[in-house]
Amino acid sequence: MTYPNYLKVYLLVDRRLCKKKMSCLSDSSTDYDSEYSILHTDKLDVQQINKIYSELKSIGKRLQNESALLSNRKSELEVRERQADAKELALAETLENLRSKENYLRISQQKITQLHRDLNAVVNLQVKEKISDKEDYYDVEINKLQLDLREKTRECKRLKSNFDTVRSLNEVLKSQLADAQETNIKLDSQLQACQGRLNNLLRLNIKSSRKCEAKESISKETLPKLVPSSTSIQDRQITCMNFDCFNNVICILLEWICDVQLSKGVEVFRSYDEYISEFTLGRTLKILPLLMDIISPQNSNVKSHLPILRCIYFSIIYLETVNKKSTLSSTLRRIGQELYGGGSERSAIFYNSGNAHVRFLSSLIILKTFSQDDILARVLEAIRSDTKVDSVKELFLHYQANSVMLPFLFVRNKVLLSLTLDIFLQMAIESSFLNAFLDSLSCEEFFKQVSVLISTGNKSLDQLVLEKCSIILQKLSKIKSNKRYFELHKLVPSLENIYKDCDDSQGFLALNLRSTLFSLGVNLS
């Protein structure tokens, strides 16, 4: 297909213009001249050229407008690019600042964390120190309060045990008072009967005295008067004075012997040589049978009785110590019988004497010489009633009567056992003699006897007997030196077994045993 020339020129121009359209033609006039020369060379028509020129001119205007728009857009794009670059720089600076701030904040955070850790460590250390100080302080305070509480508890238990003892004694006294009132009623009735008999006897006496006066008047008239000689009266007075002096000398010598030798115990004789020991033993064996012959029922002087009774008592103790009591068994039995009397005149002078000292010494000698249970029970009852008085308690400690009572702590005779424990309870009541009595019981003999009593008679002993033993042991357990006696004679396991076997009805016994074991350091948890 063939195109006209003007179309070829137009297509050529249009193709070149399209190539230069994107390169932003700024030199359009030069191109137009070159195109014009091409058109001229092709020798086109003027009309066609004018037409083409006009078209090209319009196209050039459009292109200029488009070029202006493109230049404006280019400038805008450059401005925007510069703004974008500036923003990018600003953003980079901002990002750098943010990074530096982030690093600063991270370092600050690390420092704050480290400071927080150090502060927590310091605070924890100070808190622990303060807590430990407070714990130590409160531990010391708690220990003090616990000790005070234990002391108060022990004091309350002791007061309760004393109150129970006093209450039991009060009940015993009430029963004795009731018995005494009944006896008083009987004695009143007997007194009235005796008073009637006495009135009758007085009437008979008056009648008989009148008859005697009548007979004497007749005898005076018939018989000569008898005048006593003055020499016989003087001889009798001298004999009485000599007897009193002799009696006083013997009493002084006996007191001297008791205070210097016999009352000191066998330890004094062990320090002497063999000759002196045999000499003392021989003289004791000789003088003991003669002592009771010196005392007569007609001699009611207490001052002469006491030295003889003291010498008899300490002689018996000495013979027991040297194991020679069996050599004078019959003599000692006769001495006990003479002192007890069985309601005779001697009984009123010794065993039933109004003097507490004579009565107590006579009772101790009877306990040492008699073997009949009924008589021993009466004597123990008398000692139990006498030990309510402080003066007799002092005599009990002076003569070490607990050694006399120990042989009766056997299950063989429960009456004697109960009476002996009652005497010990009387001595264990709060008084000025309590500590001395507890010290006298703090010996191996007593703990051995109690251990045998509890171990052999645990099942057969009455609850009252066990309660009495527990009261005495509870008081002895407070003495720290007695702990070795409890351990030596194995009393702790026996007391633990009794405590475990206690039921609800044995609350008082369980309380005393718990207090005793607690004082000995035994944990009952």
Question: What do you see in this structure?
Answer:
The chain is mostly helical. 80% of the residues lie in helices and 0% in strands. It has 20 helices and no strands. Helix 19 packs antiparallel against helix 20. The longest helix is centred in the first third of the chain and has 177 residues. The N terminus is likely disordered.
- Order of H and E elements: HHHHHHHHHHHHHHHHHHHH
Main β-sheet description: none
Helix percent reads: over 70%
Q: Regions with pLDDT < 50 over 5+ consecutive residues? A: 1-8, 24-30, 38-43, 222-243
Mean pLDDT: 78
Annotation, overall tally of beta strands: 0
Strand percentage: under 5%
* Distance linking N and C termini: 131 Å
Number of helical stretches of at least 4 residues: 20
Structural class: mainly alpha
Radius of gyration: 67 Å
Which word captures the global form? Answer: rod-shaped
Task: Write a short abstract of this structure.
This protein has 525 residues and is mainly alpha-helical. The protein has helices spanning 5-21, 28-41, 46-222, 230-260, 266-270, 274-294, 302-321, 329-340, 345-349, 356-369, 373-386, 390-398, 402-405, 414-427, 434-441, 444-456, 463-476, 483-488, 491-500, 507-519.
Element layout with pairings:
Layout: H1 5-21, H2 28-41, H3 46-222, H4 230-260, H5 266-270, H6 274-294, H7 302-321, H8 329-340, H9 345-349, H10 356-369, H11 373-386, H12 390-398, H13 402-405, H14 414-427, H15 434-441, H16 444-456, H17 463-476, H18 483-488, H19 491-500, H20 507-519
Helix pairs in contact: 4-7, 6-7, 7-10, 8-10, 10-11, 11-14, 14-17, 17-20, 19-20
